[in-house]
Amino acid sequence: MTFHNIIGKNAVSEKMDKYLDKKKRHAELSGLLNTYSRQYYMFEDPAVSDAEYDSFYRELLEIEEEYPELRTSRSPSQRVGASAVKGFRKTSHTTPMLSLENAYGEEDISDFVTRVKKLSNIEDFELVLEPKLDGLSVSLGYRNGALISAATRGDGSVGEDVTANIVSLNCIPPKIDDCPEEMEIRGEIVMLKSHFQELNKQRTEGGEKLFANPRNAAAGSLRQLDSRITASRKLTFFAYSIISEKSNFVTQMDVLNTLKKYGFTVSDEIMLCGNQSDAFEFYKKIEKRRAELEYDIDGIVYKVNDLSLQKKLGATSKYPRHSIAYKFSAEKAQTVVLNIITQVGRTGNITPVAELKPITIGGVVVSRATLHNKDEVGKRDIRIGDRVMIQRAGDVIPQILYPILEERPADAAPFVFPTICPCCGSPLAQKETEVAVKCVNFNCEAQLVERLIHFVSKLAFNIDGLGEQNIKFLFKNGIIKSPVDIFRMKAKNAEICLENFDGWGKQSVENLFESINAARVISLDRFVYALGIPQVGRTVSKLIAAFFQTYDNLFKCVENKECKKLCEIQGIGSSIANDFDNFFSNENNLKTIEELCGDGIFPGAIKVTAMELPKNDVFGRQSIVFTGSFEKFSREMAQELVEKFGGRVTSSVSAKTSLIVAGTNAGQKLDQGKKLGIKIISEDDFLKIVDKK
Questions:
Q1: Contact 60, 76 (CB under 8 A)
Q2: Partners of 175 in beta bridges
Q3: Range in 419-433, 463-477, 667-681 the model is least confident about
Q4: Tell me, which fold does domain 90-327 have in CATH?
Q5: What is the mean pLDDT of residues 6-14?
Q6: Measured distance between the N- and C-terminal CA atoms of the chain, rounded to whole angstroms
Q7: Residue 669 pLDDT more than 50?
Q8: Cα separation of 549 and 546, whole Å?
Q9: Strand, coil or helix: what is 40?
Q10: d(Cα 372, Cα 365) in Å, to the nearest integer?
């Protein structure tokens, strides 16, 4: 067998200046944050959780703190929200609509109070605590008491003119008596939970796509080009601010009371506090009751009550210095397990999934939760019909914490794990040393589809236009059965005529083919990752690429049956080496790779970069395993932190494992670690280690 050896551009050398590394990371973060902001503000379709967004944003701020010259007017730290969407006239805000700085613990609030004292030279001041509503920020313009304009926040300086839609709502007073001649009323457009459920029920009956959460429904309803549609939706406007040069208000509480007098809806969950202790108690009380509220909130706003002090404190380019948003931790709720199904992953792993009675939690309608594996579903004894406590902490699929046994139906039977694959009917197998139950049929259709989805994913070939649904559609219609078919689609399109299928237009097909063509040049580590070799994730792919350096070197090892060489790489053990060897012992896999390269796929050479050999070796090249669920960071964020500080994340526990970070519901990996005497730390312990650096 012959393999192409196309040498791409060398990656950044390990001796690259720290500044250039930081500058590159700043550009990456800026791109990510701008994309996420557009998804959230313009399309009402958040791509990541708030926690993930905030972690990236904090990292960006740290870089700009160290290198202020990277803080330009185009930086996400200098802008609020996203640009106005097309279809609405743009309108400028007389006074910028700023965002709020976030706090995640009592220490952050204490720092905020200390900062206010330092800036104002005032020791004692009152705080007004208001719910942080999860909706769409809007500013209403009044002249001589009449409503004359309405605009969304947009990027803070320029928003969308939604006057026609706002005047169609009966929740906003069109005329106000006894008020300043010119004023702005600011607040949040939300959809109450009951109205959201009613709207989604109507959309289900009409065969329309459901809204993901009340915020999306509110934003989508307000941004209708036909104001009659907006008028038909049940929206509520909660007011919280009056801006006027000629007002006589002294405190924020005066403002809120006046807004009520004007006829606006103001939240009832508001408290005036003179000390931090009372403020923390109020926060805890509302956090416990948040699921009972008729609207979604994601925290409590701490706001200086004295308006003259607010003015004295001023603002940064993005945040007012007089307020801060104390965000809630993961939200929990109870619901019922309607069914338990099993899914087949790309490596054949069988995952049990609970289908739940839909419930809104953390701003998202939850209808499914992973049960992880056979051992977990057995150990926690989750049954169909159980009432369960669930938690959503930034995960796409939430987790079930435990069943409420006192409410278990008398006829609820233990879940029986299947013995044959739910997709292809092949017998399932489980090795004594592994937790996973697997379908061993490599040609199982469910596995084929999942491998294709993995192959085109962002961290692999990153082909725009080939998302999960499109892959499933193309597979079902026989257009794509293997990775090779992807790169041959354009040549075969004369007979396929992809643009004739529903949902595919000429332009979208052209864009897809451009994206496929651009993906032909790929770094060696991403190529290895895209192959979907069991246990070979991002970190292991980088280690393998750094070890072999070039495509030719890697496949010489494969051809010479020397895959055991991988054990020479720190962080890779015999289990991974065996999976690597097994993958390349499969003739179908070798044929696929040869055909890919024959069709012009160019895996470039790679040098060891700053990520492979970090300058900061806090973890001293230790092998670290994460197990369980984490509230304060995602797995991807944790992996980046470990790599940044000199360690390696591995997926399995062995004698070579140096450290285990255990979250909630940690399973067999934690038990294995205890037996082997491996050091085990908590999520908070891990953050303390990296936060000190």
A1: yes
A2: 146
A3: 667-681
A4: D-amino Acid Aminotransferase; Chain A, domain 1 (3.30.470)
A5: 37
A6: 49
A7: yes
A8: 5
A9: helix
A10: 20
Domain limits of the chain? Answer: 18-78, 90-327, 331-438, 445-604, 623-691
Residue for token pair 């609405």: 88
DSSP assigned state of 626: E
Residue 428: φ, ψ to 5°: -90, 155
As a whole number of angstroms, the distance between CA 600 and CA 526 comes to: 16
Mean pLDDT, rounded, for 168-181: 90
**Class of CATH domain 18-78:** mainly alpha
Q: What is the Cα–Cα distance from 436 to 346, expressed in whole angstroms?
A: 13
| Nearest to 689, CA basis, from 650, 631, 643, 642 | 642
CATH number of 445-604, picked from 1.10.150.20, 1.10.10.10, 3.40.50.1260, 3.90.190.20: 1.10.150.20
Strands 158-160 and 182-190: unpaired
What letter would DSSP give residue 407?
Answer: G
Query: For 73-100, how does the pLDDT look when each residue is reduced to its tens digit (9 = 90+)?
Result: 667 766 544 444 445 788 888 888 888 8
Q: How confident is the model at residue 452 (pLDDT cuts 50, 70, 90)?
A: very high
pLDDT value of position 461: 92
Q: How many residues does the chain have?
A: 693
* Catalytic residue IDs: 132
Q: Which fold has domain 623-691?
A: Rossmann fold (3.40.50)
State the pLDDT at residue 40.
55
Contact by Cβ (8 Å): 552, 565: no
Alpha helices in 560-624 (DSSP H): 574-584, 587-598
Is 318 in contact with 156 (CB distance < 8 Å)? yes
Residue 529 has pLDDT above 50, yes or no: yes
